[in-house]
Amino acid sequence: MPAKLSVNLNAIAMLRNRRDLPWPSVTGLGRIALQAGAAGLTVHPRPDQRHIRFSDLPDIRALIDDEFPHAEFNMEGYPTEEFLALCEKNQPEQVTLVPDDPSQATSDHGWNFRQSLDVLKPVVKRLKSGGMRVSLFADGDGDAEAVALARETGADRIELYTGPYGGTYDHPDKAIEEIARLGATADAAHAIGLGVNAGHDLTVANLPALVKRIPYLAEVSIGHGLTADALEYGMAETVRRFRRACGETV
Ligand SMILES: CC(=O)[C@@H](O)[C@H](O)COP(=O)(O)O
Ligand SMILES: NCC(=O)COP(=O)(O)O
After folding, report:
1. Ligand nearest to the CA of 94
2. Looking at residue 90, what is its pLDDT?
3. What is this structure's pTM?
4. I need a labelling partner for 209 at 20 to 30 A (CA). Which of 2, 22, 155, 198 fits?
5. Active site includes 76?
6. Is the ipTM of this structure higher than 0.85?
7. Which protein residue's CA is at the shortest distance from atom 1 of ligand 2?
8. Is the CB of residue 98 below 6 angstroms from any atom belonging to ligand 1?
9. Annotation-wise, does 51 bind a ligand?
10. What are the extents of the domains in the chain?
């Protein structure tokens, strides 16, 4: 079963924010991605709104509801009251909780489930009671005990942080090691009924090995590498290339 592709629009929004102008359009590029067969759209509305603005969220919600009712909206963020209220207002199909400090340049680690269990449990319950699926950002370090704790929060899925794997683009031997670690973590999650997503620094080049190792991978959310390719191939053709890399026949 191919992994579903969710296109992250953060980088599009970062480009838009360079000027006080409405282009490139976040919803316009999101529409092209969905028209090309992406399964959904992902955004990470960071507290400083450096790229995705809170005002983008209802526009993306409306795009999916009005034009692509079978697509999914995935919102990522740290569970502050502000972020949780944004989730409850915009009702994404999935919320991906990440342990990011507002000062972080990007997401670069998963949850410490041993330390954060008591924080995550009520948040997961609140979001699920609001009808949203919950995924937790997790390091692909093969720690089965941590995965069991992720399950204990009540979350539906984990999202494997694939940044270290993405960074092995010029070290094939290290890529094999990272795939093994990610696979072990995924297997531990799958064995106890947790769904498995993945994201961060994924590309057309590194996706096939990940999808092959984790055949039950539910979804990959991709923004930086996909946007870079879209500058070269256009968004529609890039989405088709990434869908093929996810195992889809396109
Ligand atoms: C959670 C994750 O790995 C990414 O989706 C994250 O949203 C990237 O954030 P930036 O686009 O702000 O780097
Ligand atoms: N959760 C990962 C994501 O949404 C996009 O990450 P990246 O492809 O921008 O690194």
Report:
1. 2
2. 98
3. 0.98
4. 155
5. yes
6. yes
7. 199
8. yes
9. yes
10. 4-245
Distance between first and last Cα of the chain? 14
Strand bridging mode 4-8 / 40-43: parallel
Judged by phi (left if over 0) then psi (alpha if -120 to 50, else beta), residue 46 lies in: beta
**171 in a known ligand binding site:** no
| Residues 79-95 pLDDT 10s | 999 999 999 999 999 99
Residue with tokens 């890529």: 175
106 is in an annotated binding site: yes
C-alpha–C-alpha distance, residues 8 and 10, integer Å: 6
Please say whether the beta carbons of 77 and 44 come within 8 A. yes
182 close to 214: Cβ distance less than 8 angstroms: yes
Residues touching ligand 2 (Cβ under 6 Å) are 8, 42, 76, 159, 199-202, 221-225
200 is catalytic: yes
Return phi, psi of residue 228, to 5°: -60, -45
Query: What pLDDT, in 10s, does the model give residues 166-198?
Result: 999 999 999 999 999 999 999 999 999 999 999
At residue 17, the pLDDT reads 98
Exposed, middle or buried: residue 248 (CB in 10 Å: 0-12, 13-18, 19+)?
Answer: middle
Single-letter amino acid code for the residue at 65: D
User: How far is Cα 99 from Cα 108, in angstroms, rounded to an integer?
Assistant: 9
Amino acid at 1: M
Q: Is residue 44 in contact with ligand 1, taking CB distance under 6 Å? A: yes
Determine the CATH number of domain 4-245.
Answer: 3.20.20.70
